[in-house]
Each structure stands twice: as structure tokens, then as C-alpha cells.
């Protein structure tokens, strides 16, 4: 079934097998996904595609500079018939939420997602409202060099299990896009491969994928290196270590393995750690150079 899932996804998002696998691993690992790229690269299409493949309830929130937290989580309105306030849920009350262009909203509005992403609940006027399982946030982010963007604070970035970029398609893929059917029309023909119950079962199974003591040593070596290297202002937190393990387990599961191998950790490493690291401005730290440093850490 996993092969069918990837094959079906590839008919919509062509030539991006690695990114598709990472996005699916992020969902299976009970995380949230940040997609950073230029407009028009297929970020929204990918979110809609995952919702269809797993038969998830889907809502899209277009973030803007004048948006308020209530536009996301909902609002309490006074009902004069019952003489009490009634909570009207916002668009976040669904299974897959697309936070489109999240960095076009202010930090106050961005913070409306923090509790939902971490605790799977919303607190409003002293009442707590649980969110439906599974709950998956896909946020898209425009490059910071573009007009009208606000940086995501570290606490918000840390809520995302992974960050990926789709990038430009190769020439052949782009030719197929230009000469073929509209991808938005093709999306309407996609049938679910898994249902919600199957997704929840797979998410539980991923926690059972075995991680050896030697690989736990390897993960700790990665964390220790980030904390003591002069290349970074701050190192990776224990939550980042858990995110790395969970992502590696999901990657192994996608490839039909019951245990994590070093290649699984290396496959997800960049997407899990790069958005969590704060580079030291005194060092020349491109993402490629940073990954070269981490790839030199010996495998126990």
C-alpha cells in the first residue's frame, strides 16, 4: 500500500519523491510540516494532496498581516436566548490545516497555533477544547527576502517536526506540467489510499519501530555536537532529539523496516535540525556546510 501511496502522489507532485516521502513521514510521525519556498512551487497542492490520500478533513487558512488569533481558533459570541457566551470554532478545528504563507502574519497571530500544535487542544475563555485526531498542520513560508514577511520565532519553528523545500522542477517534469492537465483538476480525481483509522494505526506502529542503543548514542552525539560547536549560538534541544528519532522511525516504516538504521537518521537529519539551529554570525554557515559538519560525526 505504501508503494501505491507514493505512486499516486507522484502523479500530482512529479519528480519530488524525496520531498513526498519526507512529508508523509512527517504525518506518520505525528509531527507538523513547514514548507519554505517561492510562491507557485506546489506547496498548497501538496497539502491538499495529503488530505485526499489519507481522507482527512481539510481547511486552508490564508495568513495576512491584519489577521487576528480569533480568525484561527474561533470566537465566543453572546447568545441572548440562553444568556451565555457560545464558542464558535474556527478553521483550526479539522484534521489537516494548511496555514498558507504563515510568515505574512504577525507574531501574535502566529502564536495562536502554538497550543494547538503542541497539545492538540485550544483554550478559550477558560475552557479547553480538544482537537480531532489526527491533527496535522502544514504551514507554507515565503522567503524572508520577500516583501511583507515576519520571521517565525524559535518557539514556533520548534513546533514543526520537519522543514522541507520543493524547489524548481527539472526540465522534463516542467514540460509535463506545462503541456499536461492542470494539477488542481487532477487532484479531484485522486481517491484515498488510506482512511483515518488506518493512519492512526500506522502512527501507533511507528512508535514500535526498534531503535538500538548504538543509534541512541549516535543521536546524542549529534545533539552534543550542536551544543558545543562554535558554529551555533544555541544547540539542539531534547525535543529536537525526539523529533529526529520519530522521523527516523517513520522513514524506516515507509521503507518496510522494523528497525532504524543509520541511513534513516541521515535521510531525515537536514529536514529536522536545520530550522532549529541558530547560526553564529561570525561563522560562514550555509546549510550545505552545516550538513557537511554533521555528516562527519562518526556512526557508533
Relevant terms:
single chain, 300 residues, alpha/beta, Rossmann fold, Helicase, Ruva Protein, domain 3, 2 domains, 5-stranded parallel beta sheet, two-stranded antiparallel sheet, 14 helices, 11 strands, 43% helix
Overview of this structure, please?
With 300 residues, the protein is of the alpha/beta class. It folds into 2 domains: 16-193, P-loop containing nucleotide triphosphate hydrolases (Rossmann fold, 3-Layer(aba) Sandwich); 207-295, Orthogonal Bundle (Helicase, Ruva Protein, domain 3), CATH 1.10.8. The protein contains 14 helices and 11 strands. It has helices at 2-10, 17-28, 43-53, 70-73, 107-110, 114-119, 154-157, 171-179, 183-187, 196-206, 213-228, 238-254, 262-273, 287-295, and strands at 33-36, 58-62, 74-79, 84-89, 96-100, 121-124, 127-130, 136-141, 162-164, 232-234, 278-279. The strands form 4 sheets. Strands 2-5-8-1-9 form a 5-stranded parallel β-sheet. Strand 3 and strand 4 form a beta hairpin. Helix 2 crosses helix 12. It is globular. The two termini are 34 Å apart. The mean pLDDT is 90.
Amino acid at each position: 500500500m505504501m508503494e501505491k501511496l507514493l505512486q499516486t502522489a507522484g502523479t500530482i507532485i512529479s519528480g519530488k519523491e524525496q520531498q513526498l516521502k519526507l512529508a508523509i513521514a512527517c504525518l506518520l510521525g505525528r509531527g507538523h510540516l513547514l514548507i519554505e519556498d517561492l510562491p507557485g512551487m506546489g506547496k498548497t497542492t501538496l497539502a491538499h494532496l495529503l488530505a485526499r490520500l489519507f481522507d482527512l478533513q481539510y481547511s486552508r487558512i490564508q495568513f495576512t498581516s491584519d489577521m487576528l488569533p480569533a480568525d484561527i481558533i474561533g470566537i465566543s459570541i453572546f447568545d441572548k436566548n440562553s444568556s451565555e457566551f457560545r464558542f464558535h470554532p474556527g478553521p483550526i478545528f479539522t484534521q489537516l490545516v494548511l496555514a498558507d504563507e504563515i510568515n505574512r502574519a504577525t507574531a501574535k497571530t502566529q502564536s495562536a497555533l502554538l497550543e494547538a500544535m503542541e497539545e492538540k487542544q485550544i483554550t478559550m475563555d477558560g475552557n479547553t477544547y480538544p482537537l480531532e485526531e489526527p491533527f496535522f498542520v502544514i504551514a507554507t513560508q515565503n522567503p524572508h527576502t520577500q516583501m511583507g514577511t515576519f520571521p517565525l520565532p524559535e518557539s514556533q519553528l520548534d513546533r514543526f517536526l520537519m522543514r522541507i523545500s520543493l524547489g524548481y522542477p527539472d526540465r522534463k517534469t516542467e514540460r509535463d506540467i506545462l503541456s499536461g492537465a492542470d494539477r488542481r483538476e487532477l487532484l479531484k480525481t485522486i481517491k484515498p489510499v488510506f482512511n483515518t483509522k488506518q493512519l492512526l494505526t500506522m502512527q501507533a506502529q511507528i512508535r514500535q519501530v526498534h531503535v538500538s542503543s548504538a543509534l541512541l548514542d549516535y543521536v546524542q552525539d549529534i545533539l552534543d555536537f550542536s551544543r558545543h560547536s562554535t558554529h551555533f549560538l544555541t544547540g539542539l534541544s531534547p525535543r529536537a532529539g525526539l523529533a529526529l528519532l520519530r522521523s527516523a522511525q517513520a522513514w524506516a516504516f515507509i521503507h518496510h523496516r522494523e528497525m532504524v538504521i543509520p541511513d534513516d537518521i541521515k535521510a531525515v537529519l537536514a529536514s529536522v535540525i536545520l530550522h532549529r539551529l541558530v547560526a553564529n554570525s561570525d561563522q560562514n554557515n550555509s546549510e550545505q556546510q552545516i550538513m557537511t559538519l554533521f555528516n562527519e560525526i562518526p556512526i557508533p
